[in-house]
């Protein structure tokens, strides 16, 4: 099997890079690993992931040509932030190893991502702010969008379960359920949960519908506040959820929505500008894609 899936100006894109990127988009778009997707979904994810990798490499090469490179201190700081989500640095690197990534490869990937972000910011720095008239038009045209959605704040305890040990994971969580209460939930989450949120006592903060996998969302939004719910199964494993607070949907006044609309319009303009730039870079580049 060819380990190179594409070349951008002779710079190879490895199959492992593509596989890792596909897993990220599979979880973002379908809340499932690639292996659980249909053939059509896998094809869609592969095409999207390859396009993203090509665009990132084109921007990275443009950055290097202009002498724009993320500083080593920034790379190390970003790594420290990511490692802080794990029980220990050792656990972090164990996770990398299971994903087929060496520390050196991951370091290069972080540097590339930060460099791409720097170059993109440089390209967009002179993009003008949207006029107030455009902001007012969006507010009046889409009143159903000018609402702050219903949100919940919840803690959870996750016992991760792969296909070969889901029964053991369920038994372990059932044992925890037998002694968990609202009062000791955070303590048991810190001691037992396999989620990075364990360090915060399982606290996930506030989230709205569409941000969590469906079974977790349904449970969180239907459970009473202050009570530990029944065991919930998701692709990640088994969860216990404690809903701490609920905030009802409400309409936002213009003064409150203005900044959000402005950011939305700026983001929309930024995406179009970057897409236009990447298209220009593609026209000047030598791109080879291998089956």
Automatic annotation (TrEMBL):
GO molecular-function term, one example from the UniProt record? peptidyl-prolyl cis-trans isomerase activity
Domain of life of the organism encoding this protein = Bacteria
Q: What is this protein called?
A: PpiC domain-containing protein
Q: Which PROSITE patterns match?
A: PPIC_PPIASE_1, PPIC_PPIASE_2
Q: Keywords on this record?
A: Isomerase, Rotamase
Q: Carries keyword Isomerase? A: yes
* Coiled coil (UniProt feature): none
Q: Does the keyword Zinc apply?
A: no
Q: Which InterPro entries match?
A: PPIase_dom_sf, PPIase_PpiC, PPIase_PpiC_CS, PrsA_foldase, Trigger_fact/SurA_dom_sf
Q: Which residues form the PpiC domain?
A: 149-245
